Each structure stands twice: as structure tokens, then as C-alpha cells.
Amino acid sequence: MLATSALFAEYEDVLSRPKHMRIHRLSAEQLEDALNELASLVYEVRLAYDWRPQLSDPGDEKVLNAAINGFADAIVTHNLRHFTPAPTQFGIAVVTPGIIMKERFG
Predict the structure, then answer these.
(1) What is the band of 6 on the pLDDT scale with cuts at 50, 70, 90?
(2) How is residue 60 annotated by DSSP?
(3) Averaged over 3-28, what is the pLDDT?
(4) What pLDDT, on a 0 to 100 scale, did the predictor assign at position 75?
(5) Which residues are within 8 A (CB) of 38 and not within 5 positions of it... i.e. 6 or more apart?
(6) What is the CA radius of gyration of the chain?
(7) How far apart are CA 97 and CA 69, in angstroms?
(8) CB 3.0 to 4.6 Å from 8: which of 3, 22, 25, 85, for a disulfide?
(9) Distance between CA 67 and CA 73 in Å, rounded?
(10) Where do the domains of the chain lie?
């Protein structure tokens, strides 16, 4: 998994919102532990170049920028519509979590 520090901070912010806390049912301490564990697995991408604007939703630009600058193979998302066709111009596939799980883990 690749992320810039800004993108990871956004993940943390979103997962800490009350709406999402009710869904994932982790306590604040459990969420912090999970995010720390995730951070230890994430390769931090430093932006060499800002490729914006490329997408119809400006909120998705951080993801695309991390993918391009981190030489990602794929962007994994349920939001396929917002990422088409820009990533493919950079040789980056856009796939759902289900597809990537089937491809990588059979």
C-alpha cells in the first residue's frame, strides 16, 4: 500500500468521524492501534510532481498523485467511476477490492 502523509492523515480523519466509528465499532484506542499498524505497512510516497487536475472529483486527486508518484500497479477502490480514465494513461489499473483479492489470492 502506498500513501502520502497527507493521504494517510485523511484516512485517519475519515475513520475517526462518528459516522464511521459507529460502522467499524473500534474504540478510539483500538482505531489508533490499527492505524499505527497500518502505518507500519504503508510505503510513504513523496510527491516529485503534482499531476493535478486529472479527475472529475478533486477529492480523489491525492490518491491518484500517490499512485503515480509511487509507481503503483493499481488503485483499489469501489469508486471506479471517479477514477476513469486518468490512471490508465499512467499504466495504473483501477480495480475493486474484490477483483484485487481474486487476482492476488485466488
Answers:
(1) very high
(2) G
(3) 96
(4) 96
(5) 1
(6) 15
(7) 21
(8) 3
(9) 8
(10) 2-105
